[in-house]
């Protein structure tokens, strides 16, 4: 997959580091930055399709597919310097290689915060806003008048009447009208377990949280699609703020 | 031992509508004019089949958009298969082939029919021997690959090269995207059904290929006879899942579905509207399953059909570059 990375500020770091590097030549100036994503439901590792989970509403639910964009990464270090990385990545729980996301080369520093957009901002979430690849093509949001991309496709089944009869749900999020509906995530980075020039962030997404708190997502109410339902989009936007957690750095 | 660089193959220039993503070409099999031409000959030549009566084109005919018009294709020994032939349209963008996805590239795919007992029922050994003994092929392999050592790997490389050129990007839909023409009212209403959650076809057939190339149980049967993807993966949860076929050139590719059960598009649309059957492996993207489908009115059905017809590209079935070179 192509990822275009434009690293601003990198030159400042590079100059600073090359001066430093001239005196201490055993110190590496840059390292690779990875985000390794894991998906859980509460504490359990996600088992797509097979396992039934329980929503607060009492409905059982299964997760079949989950794909979503992460973009616009910003790293902040202990000196308050920030590094923005203009990148777009599509995670897909059914394609393991997408879950190990190589962001790119970054200068070595003590990074203390990581923020990113869960989804795509207004500039990218327009027709033709992303590179023309089949993966992006498959995420298109073709609704006339508000074209762009799904920022998340989350599909599965739920127990509709608490009787074991499974019905389908499709949680498709994207732009409606003027709302781009993306979510900004900002997380503190814990101290690295190992000191090394690479930065390997192990991150977890809790799917259960997306369906709960502050709002309980109602499978029954939003039964047959939410693509033009800003109310449902809003609920997911508010729920989506705290679904990511950093498990460890350089484990 | 091949140091013979007598020939330098000519790169093959593809001219594809810019709405399509870049065509992925394997590094070890670049498209060349000579390779494509050789592939085309092999595609049309019965030399590959057990009794020299059948070629790829017997079941993948240009006039049917490289599918055939039978419910099940007939192999060399008059053996009837249990699956409907698939069209070869824009296949270069796929990375899974066959209804159950058992091949990962066009090269790998082309290995299968030659030895398949319900298809060409031959053996590669015999086919290669015949090709080596022919008057024309050794020279053509030399020109295409700088190789006189003919092998099945080279045969499938050539066929795959030809397969990658079978591009259909000139339907009315494509022309509208390129702003060369516009839709009629009915077509536009059909497009709105197709690309919204009303008829919701686009979540599986939505991209520029009109196939997400993924596997879904679309609710044809409560108890599928053909287990589809489960044959390959052995997972019970894959029962009745099949590769999403493209919707381009549907007018030429009847009958429809993996078993060719529907002979008209009206029947297909009725199925999505009212005939969907629930089962444990039905795809979550199928809507209103409890009511049998998306429930379209007669007018909506005809609008949807009008839109599907805009995916017809007659330049594809008339393209002289794809024709039988022996005729």
Structure description:
- The complex is a heterodimer of chains A (251) and B (327).
- Chain A has 251 residues and is of the alpha+beta class.
- Chain A has one domain.
- Chain A is 15% helix and 41% strand.
- Chain A has five helices and 15 strands.
- Chain A has helices at residues 10-23, 96-99, 134-138, 207-211, 230-239, and strands spanning 6-7, 30-41, 44-45, 53-54, 60-77, 82-92, 100-107, 111-118, 140-141, 148-149, 152-159, 166-173, 183-188, 199-206, 244-249.
- In chain A, strands 1, 4, 5, 6, 8, 11, 12 and 13 form an eight-stranded antiparallel β-sheet that branches.
- In chain A, a hairpin with a 4-residue loop joins strand 5 and strand 6 (82-92).
- Chain A is globular and about 60 Å long.
- Residues 1-26 of chain A have low confidence and may be disordered.
- In chain B, helix 1 (33-44) packs antiparallel against helix 5, helix 1 crosses helix 6 (152-164) and helix 8 packs across helix 12 (298-309).
- A two-stranded antiparallel sheet of chain B has the order 1-2.
- The mean pLDDT of chain B is 94.
- The longest helix of chain B has 13 residues, at 152-164.
- With 327 residues, chain B is mostly helical.
- Chain B has two domains: 33-168, Orthogonal Bundle (Cytochrome Bc1 Complex, Chain D, domain 2), CATH 1.10.760; 172-311, Orthogonal Bundle (Cytochrome Bc1 Complex, Chain D, domain 2), CATH 1.10.760.
- Chain B has helices at residues 33-44, 56-59, 106-115, 124-133, 137-145, 152-164, 172-177, 185-194, 202-205, 229-233, 265-275, 298-309, 314-318; strands spanning 215-216, 242-243.
